[in-house]
């Protein structure tokens, strides 16, 4: 990477673009989950950016573990379980921001990108609207631009060249996307809909 992994300090441009990418990827869940979880997520994001701007290292391991335990406990308190679409996606989004807080080497940034891609896929368990698809394309573009920049030893901060290359990569994936869309249509099932195909809140309707 051209930078020592032990003392790696992510460039501000890369950090901002990565933060923007995970915000775009996680926004569908952030808008859907309880406000207290979203507030915690945003506080952690702002805290990590502030540390980077001040040139300070990521928080100590013990503090990250404490924050992780607190966040997981909060999710359990809000949902009463870890299994299911809602608590599972909330847990994924929270763990992604905790990995962003930990960011101390290029490999951590790559893992945040992969978690961002996974969040994009989870978003389609809740909606398959055209607007959501367009929104998530923007998120994929931002995350891919960061990934391309991480692979560039000469310029580790995302620039126009990285954004253009990320765009070309996405355009190159369109034919495969269309083939998969035709050959593998969405099949309703228990992972997407509650048992019996009944809306989640139908038991509340008298």
From TrEMBL:
<feature type="transmembrane region" description="Helical">
    <location>
        <begin position="133"/>
        <end position="153"/>
    </location>
</feature>
<feature type="domain" description="Protein-glutamine gamma-glutamyltransferase TgpA N-terminal">
    <location>
        <begin position="22"/>
        <end position="192"/>
    </location>
</feature>
<keyword id="KW-0472">Membrane</keyword>
<feature type="transmembrane region" description="Helical">
    <location>
        <begin position="111"/>
        <end position="127"/>
    </location>
</feature>
<feature type="transmembrane region" description="Helical">
    <location>
        <begin position="165"/>
        <end position="184"/>
    </location>
</feature>
<dbReference type="InterPro" id="IPR021878">
    <property type="entry name" value="TgpA_N"/>
</dbReference>
<keyword id="KW-1133">Transmembrane helix</keyword>
<feature type="transmembrane region" description="Helical">
    <location>
        <begin position="35"/>
        <end position="53"/>
    </location>
</feature>
<feature type="transmembrane region" description="Helical">
    <location>
        <begin position="65"/>
        <end position="82"/>
    </location>
</feature>
<keyword id="KW-0812">Transmembrane</keyword>
<dbReference type="Pfam" id="PF11992">
    <property type="entry name" value="TgpA_N"/>
</dbReference>
<protein>
    <submittedName>
        <fullName>DUF3488 domain-containing protein</fullName>
    </submittedName>
</protein>
<dbReference type="InterPro" id="IPR052901">
    <property type="entry name" value="Bact_TGase-like"/>
</dbReference>
């Amino acid at each position: 990477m051209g930078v020592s992994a032990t003392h790696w300090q992510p460039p501000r441009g890369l950090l901002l673009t990565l933060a923007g990418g995970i915000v775009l990827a996680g926004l569908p869940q952030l808008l859907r989950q309880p406000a207290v979880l979203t507030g915690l997520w945003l506080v952690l994001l702002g805290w990590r950016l502030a540390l980077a701007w001040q040139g300070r290292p990521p928080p100590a391991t013990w503090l990250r573990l404490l924050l992780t335990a607190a966040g997981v406990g909060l999710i359990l308190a809000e949902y009463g379980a870890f299994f299911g679409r809602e608590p599972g996606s909330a847990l994924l989004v929270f763990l992604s921001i905790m990995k962003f807080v930990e960011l101390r080497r290029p490999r951590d940034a790559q893992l945040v990108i992969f978690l961002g891609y996974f969040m994009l896929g989870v978003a389609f368990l809740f909606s398959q609207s055209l607007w959501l698809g367009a929104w998530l394309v923007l998120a994929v573009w931002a995350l891919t631009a960061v990934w391309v920049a991480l692979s560039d030893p000469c310029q580790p901060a995302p620039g126009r060249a990285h954004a253009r290359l990320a765009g070309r990569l996405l355009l190159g994936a369109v034919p495969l996307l269309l083939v998969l869309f035709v050959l593998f249509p969405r099949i309703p099932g228990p992972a997407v809909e509650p048992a019996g195909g009944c809306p989640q809140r139908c038991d509340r309707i008298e």
